[in-house]
């Protein structure tokens, strides 16, 4: 059984440091040690993203199936290769493991006349982290207003009270009713200006979505279809879940990730360890999966069943212990995700991959194309 949120991960008979979770059940998650700090990135990745390379709508609206998006493949020191996502089974070997995020996306944006409230992260004491945004003709933009103790009237005669700032852009706040049922009644999916119109919440769900809680879609899992999962299993590739509820990732800010709730089940931990021991690839379907697995990895490199809050940031300095590969989208120049990708791919191969993606017109963001990073051994 998965450890109780907030408790330390259970010990394993193999010696090794077990990563700590929040030690006090019901306490606030650990604070970001450097709120608002811009993450350092590979200088070769300081590119300007052309607006034409933002995916403005789901692939289905572009005449593609979910699994028909492009897949750029980086494998060790080899030149980047071009595929479709449907080629994924042929790119992996029997005995490899894909770890997916089963968090389901909430309709986390509530719109007022001039403002929008983006509900980000549920706290143990019933409060939520929220972002206030000013509505614009296209979508919304950051809003720096608000005062501690201020009350905001929301649709459905609901009231949101601002308590205090948690980060430069996020407030800790309390709604006067249960948040998730309220969002299902009055919320819409979070949408940024590069997406031209609203899409139904089903558009923002992956085939693995079973545990509601993410403010924004764990988008690396979106291209998977039921047929593709069947093809992977028939190939002998295993699939195992973790849960990590993603918070808001306002694209205008260069902030490191803040604390998010995660769970790594015992069965998934065992499969990761067995796959590594047998020489298979452990491929994370998304940066959220990397964050959860690396949080649960001990100093001995084994992954332990655990649950709680994580503020772990993967960088080239921390390295990775649990994963050998990653399926991900294409990320903004100063996104903290690029530090994680550099830790897995290496600085020079990642720079070559992004140069190729820009040259070949790959699409960015949650409805865009994908990138598979594998170790040389794969």
Brief summary of the model shown:
The chain is of the alpha/beta class and 378 residues long. It has helices spanning 88-91, 179-186, 226-235, 266-277, 287-296, 337-345, 347-359, and strands spanning 70-75, 81-84, 97-101, 103-105, 109-111, 115-122, 128-135, 140-142, 151-154, 158-165, 170-175, 211-214, 238-244, 260-264, 282-285, 306-310, 325-328, 370-374. The strands form 3 sheets. Strands 2-1-18-17-15-3-13-14-16 form a 9-stranded mixed beta sheet. Strands 5, 6, 7, 8, 9, 10 and 11 form a 7-stranded antiparallel beta sheet that branches. The chain has a two-stranded parallel ribbon with strand order 4-12.
Radius of gyration from the alpha-carbon trace, in angstroms? 20 Å
Order of SSEs: EEHEEEEEEEEEHEHEEHEHEEHHE
Portion in beta strands: 15-25%
So what's the overall shape?
A: globular
Number of strands: 18
Largest beta sheet: what is the strand line-up? 2-1-18-17-15-3-13-14-16
- Secondary-structure class: alpha/beta
Q: State the low-pLDDT regions, or none.
A: 1-40
Provide the fold topology.
Layout: E1 70-75, E2 81-84, H1 88-91, E3 97-101, E4 103-105, E5 109-111, E6 115-122, E7 128-135, E8 140-142, E9 151-154, E10 158-165, E11 170-175, H2 179-186, E12 211-214, H3 226-235, E13 238-244, E14 260-264, H4 266-277, E15 282-285, H5 287-296, E16 306-310, E17 325-328, H6 337-345, H7 347-359, E18 370-374
Parallel strand pairs: 1-18, 3-13, 3-15, 4-12, 15-17
Antiparallel strand pairs: 1-2, 5-6, 6-7, 7-8, 7-11, 9-10, 10-11, 13-14, 14-16, 17-18
């Amino acid at each position: 059984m998965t450890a109780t949120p907030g408790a330390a991960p259970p010990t394993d008979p193999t010696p090794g440091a077990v990563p700590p979770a929040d030690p006090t059940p019901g306490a606030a998650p650990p604070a970001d040690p450097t709120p608002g700090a811009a993450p350092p990135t590979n200088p070769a990745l300081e590119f300007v993203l052309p607006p034409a390379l933002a995916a403005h709508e789901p692939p289905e609206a572009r005449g593609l199936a979910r699994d028909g998006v492009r897949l750029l493949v980086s494998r060790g020191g080899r030149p980047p290769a071009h595929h479709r996502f449907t080629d994924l089974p042929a790119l992996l070997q029997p005995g490899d493991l894909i770890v997916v995020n089963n968090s389901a996306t909430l309709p986390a944006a509530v719109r007022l006349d001039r403002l929008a409230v983006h509900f980000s992260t549920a706290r143990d004491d019933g409060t939520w982290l929220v972002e206030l945004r000013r509505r614009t003709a296209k979508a919304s933009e950051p809003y720096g207003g608000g005062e501690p103790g201020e009350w905001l009237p929301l649709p459905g005669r609901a009231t949101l009270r601002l308590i205090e700032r948690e980060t430069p852009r996020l407030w800790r706040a309390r709604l006067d009713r249960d948040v998730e049922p309220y969002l299902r009644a009055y919320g819409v999916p979070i949408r940024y200006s590069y997406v031209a119109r609203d899409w139904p919440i089903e558009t923002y769900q992956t085939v693995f979505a079973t545990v509601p809680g993410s403010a924004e879609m764990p988008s690396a899992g979106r291209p998977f279809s039921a047929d593709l999962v069947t093809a992977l299993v028939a190939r002998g590739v295993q699939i195992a879940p973790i849960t990590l509820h993603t918070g808001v990732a306002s694209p205008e800010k260069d902030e490191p990730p803040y604390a998010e709730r995660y769970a790594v089940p015992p069965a998934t931990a065992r499969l990761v360890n067995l796959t590594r021991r047998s020489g298979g690839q452990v491929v994370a379907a998304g940066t959220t999966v990397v964050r959860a697995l690396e949080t649960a990895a001990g100093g001995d490199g084994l992954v332990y069943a655990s649950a709680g809050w994580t503020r772990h940031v993967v960088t080239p300095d921390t390295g990775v212990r649990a994963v050998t590969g990653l399926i991900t989208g294409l990320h903004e120049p100063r996104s903290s995700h690029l530090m994680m990708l550099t830790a897995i791919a290496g600085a020079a191969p990642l720079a070559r991959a992004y140069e190729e993606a820009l040259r070949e017109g790959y699409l960015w963001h949650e409805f865009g194309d994908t990138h598979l990073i594998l170790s040389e051994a794969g």
